[in-house]
Every structure is written in structure tokens, then in C-alpha cells.
Amino acid sequence: MASIAILGGTGALGSALAMRLARAGWTVVVGSRDAAKARDAAAGLAALYPDIAISGAGLAEAAARAEICVLAVPYAAHAETLAQVREAVAGKIFVDTTVPLRPPKVGTVQLPAAGAAAVEAAQALGETVRVVSALQTIGAEKLAAGGAIDADVLVAADDAEAAETVRALLADIGLRSWHVGPLANSAAAEAMTSLIIQINRRYKINQAGIRITGKPKDAPVTAMGLSVRPVPGLPHIAPGDDLAVLIGEAIIAGGVELAEGDVVVVAQKIVSKAEGRTVRLAAVTPGAEAIADAERTGRDAAMVELIRAESSEVMRVTPGVVIARHRLGHVAANAGIDQSNVAHDEGETALLWPVDPDHSAAVLREALQRRFGVRLAVVISDSLGRAWRMGTTGTAIGVSGLKPLRDRRGESDLFGRVLQATVTGVADEIAAAASLVIGEAAEGVPVAVVSGATYEPAENQGIGEILRPLDQDLFR
After folding, report:
1. Residue 30 phi, psi dihedral angles, 5° rounding
2. Which of 172, 186, 179, 258 is nearest to 212 (CA)?
3. pLDDT per position as a tens digit, 224-251
4. Which GO-annotated molecular functions does the record name (predicted)?
5. DSSP secondary structure of 385-437
6. Are strands 349-351 and 278-280 parallel, antiparallel or unpaired?
7. Is 222 contained in some domain?
């Protein structure tokens, strides 16, 4: 990837951008009026993320060392900074994120005489610089959080090629963007910031944003409903495989188009395989309790030892099965440990659940969103039994991007009666729908895309809320 300078990279927005771009593989130069401060900021990020390429320098030097420059300074420092870097940015793409806020009235639109700060930048830098306006409606706190962002970016530029270059850059850090026309239209995005500040204040919203909605004019009109599409073509997964890359390639090769809000459901088995959760039973030494339980169940003692090691509580031991509370809180037969669809070339093996399925889902979601440029949710599923029911169904064991429960209490039914107890396990419902195409035998389709599901988007929300607390155990 190209090198990029963040001018004002020690501020809140600049440092958040530097972090995201460096983690996405860009070579980043943090620029500041104080070169020592810039070097310290770069060193701090390098300490957190050792594999990134980042350095610090003064403003003019940083601009000279980069192919693309991003200005992230307060409006009060706008003109002065432009003057300092004018020669260094000649012939380059220059991204201006500036909003003409004039404290203390930051909630009031106050555009400059030129119409927009980005237009002022173009006038100050000269005709050889391709100025692009972007990021005025994305808060620094959202960027710094590191997760997916449920908001869009408006990009204004007179040079269409430069605009598309910047849009590709934004996609690299997980942002969906729209080219909204000439640079003069930056006035709308810059003014929008004051409106967002008002919304945050009046409605106690944390980091409000904007989202462009609608459908292509030539899109077919379809009835509302749910669709589940298999993602075929994944190879056999081995430890260390980059699962996000392989899933992304299979989605493209299979012609499966991802849309905003789609849920990618991934079978636990391939996640566990990629994370190296396969265990050879010959390497397991069973303890006395496992040996005793093995005699009662007729199961291999090594297998029972694995079940005990993965469980916080063994709840029932019967012929053929051990019912256990997995260390993650799920109650399942054999603590979710399975031997199906696992190679046994070097002796009997078993496959454990991922160490942290929520984290696994979040990693997959971030990578897939960055690749496809749309907001997604990811569910990691396994087939589990249910109390007093025969057969298994797809069940969510890890989620990212959605609340696993949909609380409908307070809504009205068809006859106006207020719902008192309706809380839907939407993550499990999505997993169950996907299991119809993922299959349990030799189908070889461990990923499905669910479109049209109704759920509440959420950042940093795991599967935990769907697990009933122990003090509400209805069977003991």
C-alpha cells in the first residue's frame, strides 16, 4: 500500500486515523508542529501494534514523505498548517477533514466566506493539489474504538479519480463512503457536523452519525422475507489458515453478493480448525473422575477427560452421553466436543470449541466488512440439542455485530395487547435458519449468508445475554 501522512496526527481524530490505517497495512507518517511529539505518538502506537509501519515527523517533513496527505487539525490551525505544507503536498492527493467550528458555538453552522473549509484548502494549496473532502461526520471516538462503524462518509472532490482513491482508502479501514459531487458540496458535510453535535446533546446520543439508505433504481421489487444462501467452495481448513480471507474468496467465487445488514453464519468446526483446537485423544491422560465417568457412559476415557476440562460443571452422566455446562456457559452434550467432520489420519481426534467464539466472530466480521464495504453481523453456530426435544438445531455460540436477543416487551400484538414477556433469541433463530443449508454430514458447506433478518445492530455485544443466569435455572 501507499504511504500516507496524517497532518495533525497527535490529535484525537488524527491519532485514531493513524491507528486504523497502520493496522490496515498502510505506511503511516504522523505529522505535528512538534516533531518530537509526533515521534512519541508514533512510538506509542508501534508499541501497541508491533507489526505496523509508522513513524513521526514535523508537518512539512511528514507531508513530503507521503504519497497521500490527510489534514486533521482544528479549524483555528487550518490556514497556518496549509501554509506550512503547501510546497510538500504539490501534485498529491490532499484529504481535508476540517470542520469550520468556532467555539463556543460549535452547535451552530458557521461556514467560511469561501463556502467550505475544503474549498479554502484548494485555494491555498494551488491547482496541482487534488483536494478531497471527507470524514467530517465521523467522530474521533468511533474511529479510536477500532470496531466497525455504523455510519457513512461523504466524499466531495472535483477530481473523480482522487475521490475514488480516497474511497478505497476509507474502505480499507472499514468505512462505507459516497462521492457526493464537487468540492463545493463539502459545505453540506461540514455543516452537518454542527447538526450532529446538536443531536448528540439534545437526545443524549453517543457519537451520532449519518447513513445513506435506498435501493438502486433498477433493482427488482421483491416481497419482504428471509433468504439463506450457502457459500460453497471453501477448502478443507487447517490450523493457521486465514479464515476471513478464505471465506471472502469463496463469497466472491460463488457470486454471493453481500448487502448492508447481512448475517454471515459460520460453522464452529471451521473456526475451531483454523484456531488449532483439534486434540489427539492419544495425547490426553484421563484422571480418576474421567475414568469412572467413562465406565458409566461407555465413552472413551480420554474423550471424557476433554469434556471435563472444557466444562465448569458436569451436570449429568448417562450411558452414551455427558451433559455439561461448558466453561462459556452453554449447557450441551459432551461440552460441544465433536469427532465428526474431523480427519483421523493420525489416530482418533476431537475438536473443541474456539477459546472465545465472540472474539472469533468479531475478527471475522471486521475483516469481511473491510473487504466488502458493508456493515455485517457474524454468528458462529453449532448444532445443539434442546431440553425435552429430539434432534439438534443450529445454535449461536458466538456473535458480533448484533444483539443476540430482541426484546419486544412493550410492543403491541395484532389486537393492541401489549406484549409482556416476548424476548426473541434472534441469534439462535438466524443460526437455525442457516443450518438448513450448512448441513451436518458431507455437504461441505460451512458458511451461509442470511439476508432480511430483523435484529438490533450492536458493537461489542457478545453471546452472554442469551445465556440464562444460574439463579434462574428452571430445572433444578
Report:
1. -80, 125
2. 179
3. 578 999 999 899 899 999 999 999 999 9
4. ligase activity
5. EETTEEEEEEEEEEEEEE-S-EE-TT-B-TTSPBPSS-EE-HHHHHHHHHHHH
6. antiparallel
7. no
Are 134 and 196 part of one and the same domain?
yes
Per-residue DSSP letters for 329-354? S-EEEGGG-B-TT---TTS-EEEPPP
Closest CA to 361 of 394, 396, 387: 396
**C-alpha Rg value of the chain to the nearest Å:** 26
Measured CA to CA, the distance from residue 353 to residue 448 in angstroms comes to 19
Tell me whether residue 270 is in a domain.
yes
Domain of residue 400, CATH code = 3.30.1330.100
Residue 209 lies in a domain: no
Q: Among 323-327, 364-368, 371-375, 469-473, where is mean pLDDT lowest?
A: 469-473
Residue 45 shares a structural domain with residue 191: yes
**CA distance linking residue 356 with residue 228, whole number of Å:** 26
Q: Verify that 136 and 26 share a domain, yes or no.
A: yes
Question: Is 66 in contact with 90 (CB distance < 8 Å)?
Answer: no
Are 332 and 352 spatial neighbours (Cβ–Cβ below 8 Å)? no
Cα–Cα distances in angstroms (integers) from residue 343 to residues 238, 243, 279, in the given order: 10, 18, 11
Residue 211 lies in a domain: no
The reply to whether 286 and 259 lie within a common domain is no
Strand order in the sheet with 321-326: 311-318, 321-326, 331-333
End residue of a domain, out of 321, 351, 381: 351
Q: Do residues 347 and 358 both lie within one domain?
A: no
d(CA 69, CA 26): 12
Alpha-helix residue ranges (DSSP H) falling in 49-111: 59-65, 78-85
Contact (Cβ atoms closer than 8 angstroms) between residue 303 and residue 293: no
CA–CA–CA angle 256, 258, 261 (5° rounding): 145
3-class secondary-structure state, position 142: helix
- The domain total for the chain is 3
Phi-psi region for residue 299, left (φ > 0), alpha (ψ -120 to 50) or beta? beta
Quick check: 181 and 158 in contact, CB under 8 A?
no
In angstroms, the CA 303 to CA 342 distance is 14
pLDDT tens-digit readout, 271-300: 999 999 998 888 888 899 988 888 888 888
Domain of residue 131 covers: 3-203
CATH of the domain at 285: 3.90.1660.10
Do 163 and 293 lie in one domain? The reply is: no
Strands (E), 193-351: 227-230, 263-267, 278-280, 311-318, 321-326, 331-333, 349-351
CATH of the domain at 179: 3.40.50.720
Condensed to tens digits (0 to 9), the pLDDT of residues 377-387 reads 999 999 988 88
More confident residue, 409 or 28: 28
Question: Same domain, yes or no, for 367 and 335?
Answer: no
Same domain, 25 and 108: yes
